[in-house]
Specification:
mainly alpha, globular, Serine Threonine Protein Phosphatase 5, Tetratricopeptide repeat
C-alpha cells in the first residue's frame, strides 16, 4: 500500500514539520513516497544533509535507498544535494559524516568526490575507512 503524503498532512505545513514527516516516512520504509516528492520538488535536495542527521538508523538508511533510486531516475537532480551534504559533513558527528560520504558516493559527481576526499583526513578512523571504500569504488 502506498501512502500519500498529502493524506497525512493537512493544510499548510512549515518546512520543519515537513522534514519531520519525510523522516517519519523514511523510517517506516515508505521511500517510494519520498521519491515522488523529490521528483516533483527539487528544494528537498537542500534538506538531505539535515535529514541524515536524524538519530534513527532507518531514516539514514532510507536516504541511501532513496538516492539509489534517484540516481537511476533523476540523475541530473541528485547533484543538487551536494552542497547540503558537504555542509553536513563539516558540522556533524562521525556516524553522520560516514553516512554523508556514502550518499556522496552514490551521487559520484566531481563536487561530491571532492567532499568524499575530505573524509580521508577525518578525525574518525571509521569515516576515513568509509571515504577510502567509496573512493575505491568510484575511481
Amino acid at each position: 500500500m502506498v501512502l500519500k503524503l498529502e493524506e497525512c498532512v493537512e493544510g499548510e505545513v512549515s518546512d520543519k514539520e515537513l522534514k519531520k514527516v519525510i523522516a517519519d516516512f523514511l523510517e517506516m520504509g515508505h521511500v517510494e513516497n519520498i521519491f515522488e516528492m523529490f521528483k516533483q520538488d527539487t528544494r528537498y535536495y537542500d534538506w538531505v544533509g539535515e535529514l541524515l542527521d536524524d538519530e534513527r538508523f532507518n531514516v539514514r538508511l532510507g536516504i541511501s535507498v532513496l538516492f539509489e533510486e534517484l540516481k537511476v531516475h533523476c540523475r541530473d537532480d541528485i547533484n543538487l544535494a551536494v552542497p547540503s551534504l558537504c555542509e553536513a559533513f563539516e558540522k556533524s558527528q562521525p556516524h553522520v559524516r560516514g553516512e554523508v560520504i556514502s550518499v556522496l558516493g552514490i551521487i559520484g559527481n566531481p563536487d561530491a568526490i571532492l567532499c568524499v576526499k575530505k573524509g580521508l583526513d577525518d578525525d574518525s578512523p571509521q569515516v576515513q575507512e568509509v571515504a577510502r571504500d567509496v573512493l575505491e569504488e568510484l575511481l
